[in-house]
Amino acid sequence: MQYAILCYHNEQVTCAWSKEQDDAVMAELGSVLERHKDKLGPVARLLPTTAATTLRKDRDPPLVIDGPFAETKEQLLGFYIIDCQTLDEALAFAKELGAVNPGGAYEIRPVETFISGAASS
Amino acid sequence: MSEPEWIGGVIAAARPQAMAALLRNFRDLDAAEEAFQEACLRALKSWPRNGPPRDAASWLIMVGRNAGIDTVRKQSRLIPLPPDDSISDLSDVEGAEADRIDEADYRDDILRLLFVCCHPDLPATQQVALALRIVSGLTVKQIARAFLVSEAAMEQRITRAKAKVAAANLPFETPGAVERSERIGAVAAMLYLVFNEGYSTNVAEQGAKAPLCEEAIRLTRLLLRLFPTEPEIMGLAALMLLQHARAPARFDSNGAVVLLEDQDRSRWDKRLIDEGLALVDKAIRHRRPGPYQVQAAIAALHGRAPSFDATDWPQIEQLYGTLEIMQPSPVVTLNRAVAVWKVRGPAEALALIEPLSTKLTGYFYFHGARGAFLKELGRDQEAREAFSRALVLANTAAEATYIRAQIDRLTQSTPRLTNST
């Protein structure tokens, strides 16, 4: 089964990291990913929510709103897709990530449909 | 990431909001700062043991308020005591009190905290220093280093700035719509000052000054989070991001300035460029153009261009024309002339800047650009004179080195037929 690991963190904290701190965290996350590369699907880090736009489609015509969908203390900052047999396995992966990237939370969410698509990095 | 590092990050992120609330509470910058310091000391003791609170800003505000009230109590018995429930122990700070701090209040509180740094009587450098000290929480030592002055001198500057702010008696009522919009404009200008102070033209200073650019970007993102539908704030954020993206390519290994046309674009920070481009797109949708958006749009065209020559110069010329109408200034005209040069050649560009010679007579870039136009027109003697003028006006050794190289190239190519082996 595929799991999405959705990363939530207060972006004001992550944006307050210096470039060196940010690079260091990314490098450590990179080595965790390297260990699991056989099971790993797409990984994405999202730009700050200030760059986000929301399309409300519950009306016609849809409404375009500046900013993220939800005003929350912790924001969706990225995600990993990983193949795991069990929830425990997914949790173990998330804990490894969490050990090198403190603060915030991971939502571990089973994937229903997955289309790999053609977009490249 | 080590323990002090993550705690430092959480405190830095919470600081503007916490300081803003404490300033409203105590109506005095020094008292707010002291209360915040005390709250940070307690956080350093408590957080490693108990983990960081879910809402660090609310925690720091509550603890800071209680600490500040204790101080006031000790200093004077005349102040009425606060109700007991607001000075209980820390464990219930998070749950009960966090909810009571109204999210909507934060917006005007933080705007006010930023706005006190924009007092019109404060010279630009003092506005910047004050913002870095009280909003960003940089140490006086860090700020002094960025401004290349002694710590004592910077301390004095900040103290003077604070005294002026205190004397100004800024109102603490919630601002009306017009006043709020004026404050946003003043704060945006101040944040751009912080950015420009950091955007030095000297590699030796880059290390000390880079934190200023990063702080300016962080605070502008914060302002945008508070006022997410302001296209000029999107424009300002984009402008800073797109300029800062080029920082890694602005100096060569010897520390000499590398002009835009010669920069290795693979060294530009793609992440910052993408964020900047996204913000420009968002801002344009509002169809309420302003100077920051126009400058960001120009920076975006550079950011998108694969090379200097493959840049959309006609569009840049047009945008500088728009900016000239919004903010007429000889420097903007000079910039437009560079675009004109790329679109229609040096003769027209030169004609455009000749009338500026009186106004820009002391401006390094005027003589540099004029020299470049003249050189391309083959008027080497005049080009040499213009470059010599620029050399005298160079602000940094790197600028001087660049101009000397231009003069050397002229010297080499003067006997026009003896060349190329």
3D architecture notes:
The complex is a heterodimer of chains A (121) and B (421). With 121 residues, chain A is an alpha+beta fold. Chain A has helices at residues 11-14, 19-35, 87-100, and strands spanning 2-9, 40-45, 53-56, 63-66, 75-83, 105-110. The longest helix of chain A has 17 residues, at 19-35. Chain A is globular. Helix content of chain B is 70%, strand content 0%. In chain B, helix 1 crosses helix 5 (103-115), helix 12 (270-284) packs across helix 13 (291-304) and helix 17 (364-376) runs antiparallel to helix 18 (380-393). With 421 residues, chain B is mainly alpha-helical. The chains are: A alpha+beta (121), B mainly alpha (421). Chains A and B meet through helix 1 and helix 2 of A and helix 1, helix 10 and helix 12 of B.
Please render the helix and strand layout as text.
The complex is a heterodimer of chains A (121) and B (421).
Chain A lengths: L1 E8 L1 H4 L4 H17 L4 E6 L7 E4 L6 E4 L8 E9 L3 H14 L4 E6 L11
Antiparallel strand pairs in A: 1-5, 1-6, 2-5, 3-4
Helix pairs in contact in A: 2-3
Chain B lengths: L2 H24 L2 H22 L5 H20 L17 H8 L2 H13 L8 H13 L3 H8 L3 H18 L8 H22 L4 H24 L4 H14 L25 H15 L6 H14 L8 H14 L3 H15 L1 H8 L10 H13 L3 H14 L3 H17 L8
Helix pairs in contact in B: 1-2, 1-3, 1-5, 2-3, 3-4, 5-9, 6-8, 6-9, 7-8, 7-10, 9-10, 10-11, 11-12, 11-13, 12-13, 13-14, 14-15, 15-16, 16-17, 17-18, 18-19
